[in-house]
Design a protein that fits this description.
It is built from 13 helices and no strands. By secondary structure, the protein is mainly alpha-helical. The longest helix is centred in the middle third of the chain and has 43 residues. The two termini are 24 Å apart. The chain is globular, with a radius of gyration of 21 Å. Helix 3 packs antiparallel against helix 4, helix 4 packs parallel to helix 6 and helix 5 runs antiparallel to helix 6.
Length: 417
């Protein structure tokens, strides 16, 4: 477990550093309006990836480790690989049409390059999840490193050769999308064969029929989580415009690496926790989840305190005077991030217990509170207040998730879902 966690953290560290650097690159190179557009498309991409996790990656991570034999594992791999391909095609088609209609003919290159970026993200995330479940974390690290090296080299050339280029978003999406697609080619070639179409369709119907009662609650949970955690992006874009989104996201980007590191833990921990439940090791499950939550909470508090102390030096270096008076918004995002990471960490445990319905109800409650407060902020005409609904929604969901885990601890016979 320790070696896997170290490899996963190392992998996620380079991914975090790249995403953080990409945001800083755009803050420097793009006007707030264009950075706001990038934030909106990125939020939509993250939501699509969360749908992918609910339909494909999470069922794969939960069920593959406890498959009784190699035949069952092969069947699951065929089914989820095909399902991911179909989902990628659907999301890219619908997303591309929506972007083209929203942006208009004047930004057709932005829409096309964003579609390439989204498609490569979908394929990469599936194979990253698969490599993590199979324990091939060294391969995962090499794949991500190749993607980052390709993207950074091309972005550096873009910066050196044409720093004044406008608009810059088509080039950025094209570079990152191509780098992701190229880096994942070896994994695609080595993937399981899909076999005959008739047998594949029959297997897909059987697997998804067996698991639909879990997947549907997970999917609903994704939607409500998106409303709770990133709904402000779409509402701010519709009510206040991309520049308001840029201000809000500029305050959040400093915490992005922390969230991606928690994602690294989740990728390793979800199958491990599922295995502990499969072996009825309740004490090991509690210990692993408790240590992780305490660690995330403490690390976030220390990070926020350090950020506050170095802010006078950090602000002009990172934001170049484009986003003044940002320190209080950053502090608010720090509070939101502590609640988010604790809730996400404990939520992984609830997923491993296959209590998707209860977890979804927690996010529904958080989303309801978030929407109510978001409406109040819009009515007041204060875009900056949209951080408050995020904090409130995360706190409500966290309290409910804690209650779910405590109830399961008191009912050990029903520990396994």
């Amino acid at each position: 477990m320790k070696r896997r966690l170290i490899l996963s953290v190392a992998d996620q560290a380079i991914v975090s550093a790249f995403n953080f650097g990409l945001n800083l690159f755009l803050i420097r190179m793009a006007a707030p309006q264009e950075f706001g557009l990038f934030a909106i498309i990125s939020a939509a991409s993250l939501f699509s990836t969360m749908v992918q996790n609910a339909l494909v990656n999470t069922p794969l991570s939960v069920h593959l480790p406890i498959a009784p034999d190699d035949a069952r594992k092969t069947r699951l791999l065929r089914v989820f690989t095909a399902a991911n391909a179909l989902l990628t095609l659907l999301v890219v088609t619908v997303g591309g049409l929506a972007l083209a209609l929203w942006l208009g003919s004047g930004q057709s290159m932005t829409a096309l390059s964003a579609c390439l970026y989204l498609a490569s993200q979908f394929v990469r995330e599936y194979y990253r999840a698969l490599m993590a479940v199979e324990g091939r974390l060294a391969s995962l690290f090499r794949t991500d490193l190749a993607c980052i090296v390709l993207a950074v080299s091309a972005l550096a050339a873009l910066f050196v050769l044409d720093e004044a280029q406008r608009p810059i978003l088509p080039s950025v999406f094209l570079i990152v999308g191509l780098a992701g697609a190229i880096s994942i080619v070896p994994a695609c070639i080595a993937s399981a064969r899909l076999g005959s179409l008739r047998a594949l369709i029959a297997d897909m119907r059987q697997v998804f029929r067996d698991q639909w009662h879990e997947i549907r609650w997970s999917l609903l949970g994704v939607i409500t989580t998106e409303i709770q955690n990133r709904g402000y992006v779409y509402i701010a874009a519709a009510v206040f415009g991309p520049a308001a989104v840029a201000q809000l996201q500029a305050g959040r980007i400093l915490f992005g690496p922390l969230n991606l590191l928690s994602g690294a833990w989740a990728r390793v921990a979800r199958p491990q926790l599922a295995g502990l439940i499969g072996h009825a090791d309740a004490s090991g499950f509690d210990a692993m989840l408790g240590r992780a939550m305490r660690g995330f909470a403490l690390f976030n508090l220390l990070f926020l305190a350090g950020l506050w102390m170095v802010w006078p030096l950090l602000s002009p270096l990172v934001f170049h005077g484009k986003y003044p008076d940002l320190e209080y918004l950053v502090a608010a995002w720090g509070i939101a991030n502590i609640a988010f990471q604790c809730r996400s960490c404990l939520g992984i445990g609830v997923q491993a217990m296959r209590r998707f319905r209860e977890l979804t109800m927690a996010t529904i409650a958080g989303a309801a509170v978030s929407l109510l407060l978001t409406a109040a902020a819009c009515y007041a005409g204060q875009a900056i207040w949209l951080i408050v609904p995020v904090i409130a929604g995360e706190c409500v969901a966290l309290l409910i998730v804690l209650r779910i885990l405590r109830r399961q601890r008191a009912a050990r016979p029903a520990f396994i879902g």
